[in-house]
Amino acid sequence: MSYEKLKVLRGINIDVRPSELVFIIGPSGSGKSTLLRCCNRLEEPDSGEIIVDGEAITAKGANLNAIRRRIGMVFQSFNLYPHLTAGGNVMLALRKVLGKPKAEARAIAEAALVRVGLADKIDNYPNQLSGGQQQRAAIARALALEPKIMLFDEPTSALDPELVGDVLNVMAELKRSGMTMVVVSHEMRFAKAAADRVVFMDGGVIVEQGAPADLFANPKQKRTRDFVGQIEQ
Amino acid sequence: MDALLQQFFNFDIMMQASPIILRGFGMTLLLCLVVIPMGLLGGLAVALASLSPIRTVRWITIIFVDLFRAIPPLALLIFVSAGLPFADIRVSPFAAVCISFLLNNSAYYGEIYRSGIESIGAGQTDASRSTGLSASQTMAYVILPQAVRNVLPDLISNTVEVVKLTSLASVVAFAELLYAADMARSVTYNASPITFAAVLYLLVLWPVVRLLSRLENKMQN
Ligand SMILES: Nc1ncnc2c1ncn2[C@@H]1O[C@H](COP(=O)(O)OP(=O)(O)OP(=O)(O)O)[C@@H](O)[C@H]1O
Ligand SMILES: [Mg+2]
């Protein structure tokens, strides 16, 4: 994967098992977001293969739109549609991609919003919600499509500290329910509690990976040590 | 003073001229009803073409927009109504007005839509595409509703200009409001019919420009 001449990712080889939570850390510009965005081809890799749930999404004739709704994505800046209510945000793809009738779409949206603790916010517009509520609505929007895997790109980085917990709780609940997750984040406490594996990236390559306890306690590579030391203080 | 009143505000003459002026007013409304929707649709097409992934399409759009924003609308109208017959294409005054307005308005509305579309952050497209919406669905359901809302004052303001510009149609003898009023003026040797016409324009446009001001204020806050 490269932007113009800049090679952003090189020789990435990563395998995420069903129900696994892979936690990705690394310095700014190391290619974490780019890696996630390649996983649903919001970014186009120059070469290589990406397989999700047995389907090669990098294949030539791959039905991208059908594949993408199986891959939920949550963004640092929420990216809720400001002209639609929380319910409308969740319902849009249900209606336009899956072709669900309105009543059914609304019922699914309600259930998804209940799951993230926003039962009473279905008719609120994003600007009437707190940051944490917006991010949970964004999670509901992805969940409603029953994805096989959820990608989180710094889901709590734009939140006030007191709102981070609500979002992490929802993510922890997802993990317990068996969702496959790839999470880019700096929330080390969450990583230690919920991650099955931590991957450290730097300069577009995977430097080191392992169980959270191992990787945080005794990193083998110097770069990992430096980075972990930095963020843990 | 009295002479001035007689020349511009002669109520009897206004009454006398009112049938022809009101018919002209009707034609102006009809013209607006045709050229405004055509311009809005044409402009949308221009905006989408200007953002096309195909470079040639973008280039052609840029040339189209530059050309029709630079040509004075009156020159364009005369060119269409007087020029096309030389190419053996006969057009009625109404058709000539519609064609020249479509070209001119599409260029202007197109630029407004485009700035609206470009004001929407890439994150919106990311979110939409990541849930499986196609590029055109994303444009229709996510980008355009926000874009139009962002540039609504500009769209309305341009529409006010278009309404006023329909008076150009008088030049090609299309019997709209100004044409009718000027006919009445030349028959009565009195400017009061023009005053009458001006009042009618005002009556239609004043509420619109008022709404516009309120909208602009609201959006600034
Ligand atoms: N749209 C783009 N065009 C050009 N270069 C880009 C683009 N997006 C990212 N890059 C570059 O690609 C590299 C990797 O960026 P990426 O956003 O994946 O990093 P990141 O690890 O997510 O960083 P951060 O922690 O700051 O989010 C960086 O050097 C960045 O400058
Ligand atoms: Mg990033």
- Which ranges of chain B are low-confidence, i.e. pLDDT below 50, for 5 or more consecutive residues? none
Biggest sheet layout of chain B:
none
Tally of separate domains of chain B: 1
User: How many strands, what sense, and barrel or not for the largest sheet of chain A?
Assistant: 6 strands, mixed
CATH topology of the domain at 1-70 and 147-233 in chain A: Rossmann fold
CATH topology of chain B: MetI-like fold
The biggest chain-chain interface is: A-B, 25 and 17 residues
Cα(first) to Cα(last) distance of chain B is 46 Å
Beta fraction of the residues of chain B? under 5%
Say which CATH homologous superfamily of chain B is assigned.
Answer: MetI-like
CATH class designation of chain B? Mainly Alpha
Gyration radius from CA atoms of chain B, angstroms: 21 Å
Strand proportion of chain A: 15-25%
The percentage helix of chain B is over 70%
**CATH architecture title of chain B:** Orthogonal Bundle
Q: Which stretches of chain A are poorly predicted, pLDDT < 50 over at least 5 residues?
A: none
Name the structural class of chain B.
mainly alpha
CATH class of the domain at 1-70 and 147-233 in chain A: Alpha Beta
Helix share of residues of chain A? 25-40%
Defining traits:
heterodimer, A: 233 residues, six-stranded mixed beta sheet, B: 221 residues, mainly alpha, MetI-like fold, 10 helices, 81% helix, 0% strand, globular
Q: What does this protein structure show overall?
A:
- The complex is a heterodimer of chains A (233) and B (221).
- Chain A is α/β, with parallel strands linked by helices and 233 residues long.
- Chain A has a domain at 1-70 and 147-233: P-loop containing nucleotide triphosphate hydrolases (Rossmann fold, 3-Layer(aba) Sandwich), CATH 3.40.50.300.
- Chain A is built from nine helices and ten strands.
- Chain A has a six-stranded mixed sheet with strand order 6-7-8-3-9-10, sandwiched between helices. Chain A has a two-stranded antiparallel ribbon with strand order 1-2.
- Chain A is globular and about 55 Å long.
- Chain B has 221 residues and is mainly alpha-helical.
- Chain B has one domain (16-220): MetI-like fold, CATH 1.10.3720.10.
- Chain B has ten helices and no strands.
- In chain B, α2 (11-50) runs antiparallel to α9 (177-188).
- The longest helix of chain B is centred in the first third of the chain and has 40 residues, at 11-50.
- The mean pLDDT of chain B is 94.
- Chain A binds chain B through residues 37, 40, 42, 65-66, 68-69, 71-73, 75, 77, 79-83, 92-93, 96-97, 138, 141-142, 145, and chain B through 123-124, 126-134, 137, 141-142, 145-146, 149.
- The complex binds adenosine-5'-triphosphate and magnesium ion.
- Residues 32-33, 153 of chain A line the site of magnesium ion (MG).
